[in-house]
Design brief:
It catalyses: 2 nitric oxide + NADH + 2 O2 = 2 nitrate + NAD(+) + H(+); 2 nitric oxide + NADPH + 2 O2 = 2 nitrate + NADP(+) + H(+). GO terms for molecular function: 2 iron, 2 sulfur cluster binding; heme binding; nitric oxide dioxygenase NAD(P)H activity; oxygen binding; oxygen carrier activity. Its EC number is 1.14.12.17. By secondary structure, the protein is an alpha/beta fold. It is about 40% helix and about 20% strand. It has 3 domains: about 130 residues, Globin-like (Orthogonal Bundle); about 90 residues, Translation factors (Elongation Factor Tu (Ef-tu), domain 3); about 120 residues, 3-Layer(aba) Sandwich (Rossmann fold), CATH 3.40.50.80. Strands 4-3-6-1-2-5 form a 6-stranded antiparallel sheet, with helices on one face. A 6-stranded parallel sheet has the order 10-9-8-7-11-12, sandwiched between helices. Helix 1 crosses helix 6 and helix 10 packs parallel to helix 11. It starts with a helix and ends in a 6-residue tail after the last strand.
Length: about 375
């Protein structure tokens, strides 16, 4: 089953944009009520669908990783009002989309493999959603909006009830300025007793939500926050040293983990490579270096891609610099950044000899 799914998906993946358009067109035809769950502009949603599919196909032979991801996805989809009957329409639309673009690679056996895989996926998501008695989302009030630079803001929120996330996880958020446009962001702080959550949000080209948050969010705004997701975490009791690789605002979940670890005296060694194009992109560097001065287990290495005049930093891409140091085969590896940065870094590390089962990253952290 695994081989047939991967081989047929390899044929389909080059047509990813058309696949996503066909899938959503079919879904909305089969179940018109689902259209109201999504925004008018579907561009990001289509991209997110394909990233999820790629992630699932990569993990299809690793159920210990895949099932927790699907269960988190099922709990998260409760915020849309998804019910069990919708899963049938999604399955039909998905198989129809893959079949249309797989061409001659689509055979009765391949169809059976995809049908069996989707049945397992849907069951994991449904069971997790049905078993979760917590809220589908939380309301949170903006306490503070700090414009760090022209394209970056730090936003602090007070949820109406504690959001039970782990340091390193991410959540989906909806802002009042962009209804139904849910985006995923990682808290930049460890869970606090007062429940306050801090987000670091950079405005990106074409980013309807990020540009709105940076430019227009105000104290007193009410956001909605979805259930926590993601598998970036550190078990400080396991005795395993850590490598962190973060690009831009991908440093937020790393900062949250470091924030939590700094509350303890005994920790594994942590080596953080923090990268950007220019020195301005490393907006959190001073804070991280300040933490490192009082926590000898933490080493912070700044990396710049396009700012050769800056001293005291490594020059090059994160993929170049990290692998220049070696394979890191004895470390647990956490990677966060743009999809392109994650792809290039993970690929280069695998070539350098880093074991795949040592590397953790999440598919949705930056949209």
């Amino acid at each position: 089953m695994v081989r047939m799914i991967r081989e047929s998906f390899a044929v389909v993946e080059p047509h990813s944009e058309e696949v996503a358009k066909f899938f959503y067109g079919m879904l909305f035809s089969l179940s018109p009520a689902t259209r109201e769950m999504f925004p008018a502009n579907m561009e990001v949603q289509r991209s997110r669908l394909l990233r999820a599919l790629v992630h699932v196909v990569q993990m299809v032979d690793r159920p210990d990783d895949l099932i927790p991801f699907l269960r988190q996805l099922g709990r998260d989809h409760r915020k849309f009002g998804v019910i069990n009957v919708h899963y049938e329409a999604v399955g039909t639309a998905l198989l129809s989309a893959v079949k249309k673009f797989a061409g001659a690679a689509w055979t009765p056996k391949v169809e059976m493999a995809w049908a069996e895989a989707y049945t397992l996926m849907a069951r994991a998501m449904q069971e997790a959603a049905d078993a979760d008695n917590g809220p589908a989302y939380w309301h949170a009030t903006v306490l503070d909006h700090q414009r760090v630079s022209w394209d970056l803001a730090v936003v602090r929120l007070q949820p109406d009830h504690p959001v039970n996330y782990r340091a390193g996880q991410y959540v989906s958020v909806e802002t009042p300025q962009r209804k139904r446009l849910w985006r995923y962001y990682s808290p930049a702080n460890a869970p606090r007793e007062d429940g306050v959550i801090e987000f670091h949000i950079r405005s990106v080209d074409g980013g309807w939500v990020s540009r709105s948050v940076v430019g227009h969010t105000q104290a007193g705004d009410t956001w909605r926050i979805g259930p926590p997701m993601g598998r970036l975490s550190v078990d400080r009791t396991a005795g395993q040293d850590i490598l962190m690789v973060a690009g831009g605002t991908g440093v937020a979940p790393m900062h949250a983990i470091i924030d939590e670890m700094a509350q303890w005296g005994d920790n594994p060694r942590v080596h953080l490579f923090y990268g950007g194009r220019t020195r301005e992109d490393l907006y959190d560097l001073d804070n991280l270096q300040r933490i490192a001065t009082t926590n000898p287990w933490l080493t912070v290495v700044p990396v710049l891609e396009s700012d050769p005049g800056v001293r005291g930093v490594e020059q090059g891409t994160l993929a170049d610099v990290v692998t220049r140091y070696g394979a890191w085969e004895d470390r647990d590896v956490l990677v966060c950044g743009s999809p392109a940065m994650i792809r290039s870094t993970v690929s280069r590390m695998l070539v350098a000899g880093t074991p795949l089962d040592r590397i953790k990253y999440d598919p949705f952290t930056l949209d």
